[in-house]
Amino acid sequence: MNEENTNLPNVVMPVCPEVKMLKGQKALITGANSGIGKGVAIELAKAGADVVVNYRGGEQAAIELVEQIKTNCGVNAFAYQADVSNENDVKAMFEKMINEFGTIDILVNNAGLQKDAPIDEMTLEQWNTVINVNLTGQFLCAREAIKEFKRRGVREEISVAAGKIIHISSVHEVIPWAGHANYAASKGGVMLLMKSIAQEVAPFRIRVNNISPGAIRTPINTDAWRTPAAYNDLMKLIPYKRIGEVEDIGRAAAWLASDYADYINGTSIYIDGGMTLYPGFATGG
Ligand code: NAD
Fold first, then answer.
1. CA of 58 to the centre of ligand 1 (A)
2. Which residue ranges make up each domain of the chain?
3. Which residues contact 212 (CB under 8 A, 6 or more apart)?
4. Which of 113, 217, 225, 248 should be mutated for ligand 1, with most atoms under 8 A from CB?
5. pLDDT tens string 4-28
6. Which of 225, 202, 226 is nearest to 215 (CA)?
7. Which residues are catalytic?
8. Band of the pLDDT at 1, cuts 50, 70, 90?
9. Is 119 helix (H, G, I), strand (E, B) or coil?
10. pTM for this entry
11. In a mutational test of the pocket of ligand 1, which residue from 28, 30, 33, 34 has the highest number of ligand atoms less than 8 Å from its CB?
12. End-to-end CA distance of the chain, in Å?
């Protein structure tokens, strides 16, 4: 040990104020009554944001989440039913949010689904449903949010940015997925949608990014983790050797939406325990 350091005084940690990264901000999370959307809504509310819990089906779950958020986080919240692939529903949802909360600061484009089939058996209906919800839905919501961000501009007392959009994409924006061509095409589309919008609206101080999850324990992929055999199989794809939890995504979303992440724009953050590291090559390929 360096002798000069032995007589150093103890460093006393100051009492740190509780940081509410998103205090006073207004957030809309689509598909927020389940899975990742629910986890994101909770973490944004914990960080001080007022939240709109969008849902399509499952009203009871949405209402319960709103009550939980209001009681435990001391922020405002309401549930709103809308199909994100329906233009009129989306417009009405933003109108309601702006009437209730005055504006929007954060959009989390999360609603999504799968309709899996081998490519030669995939129906046009399966294709269209996935593209309409996962890609067109994200476009429709982003468009309405950007209208409001541009109209309002930066509220300096709230955030240094005029608005933040987080698209919940997937590792399948870059990893091809046999038997899920519609899903992978929708997420690949979300990646270039995000980058193109980010490039276009950056001068207005609007930040647009993707969070691209790997395997997260939610109802969308129950078959991949429910049984020990399925879970063990899944682990072959995850170098970090655990499934992701919705909190892993929620905490990152809260930070990404905050001014701590202000210089992050037009990029995908992969939250996947290393799934995008080509784990098959770990032993030489
Ligand atoms: P989930 O099924 O629990 O949640 C999906 C949510 O989207 C539900 O609340 C559902 O009601 C809602 N939704 C579906 N269609 C809608 C519509 N037309 N309008 C409004 N809401 C609609 O699944 P999840 O895993 O939480 O999925 C959330 C997002 O995360 C999806 O975009 C999905 O593609 C993405 N994702 C999930 C994983 C994973 O491993 N769970 C991995 C990568 C990406």
1. 13
2. 26-219+245-276
3. 169, 170, 171, 173, 174, 187, 191, 268, 269, 270, 271, 272
4. 113
5. 566 777 888 778 777 799 999 999 9
6. 225
7. 183
8. very low
9. coil
10. 0.95
11. 34
12. 45
Rg for the chain, CA atoms, rounded = 20
CA distance 266 to 120: 35
Residue 210: which pLDDT band, with cuts at 50, 70 and 90? very high
φ/ψ (deg, to 5) at 55 = -150, 160
* Over residues 158-182, mean pLDDT: 98
Residue nearest to atom 17 of ligand 1 (CA): 83
Residue 75 burial by Cβ neighbours in a 10 Å radius (0-12, 13-18, 19+): buried
Q: Give SS3 for 218.
A: coil
CATH classification of 26-219+245-276 is 3.40.50.720, yes or no?
A: yes
Asked if 14 and 6 count as a contact pair (C-beta separation under 8 A), the reply is no
Cβ of 250 less than 6 Å from ligand 1: no
How many C-beta atoms surround the C-beta of residue 256 within 10 A?
A: 20
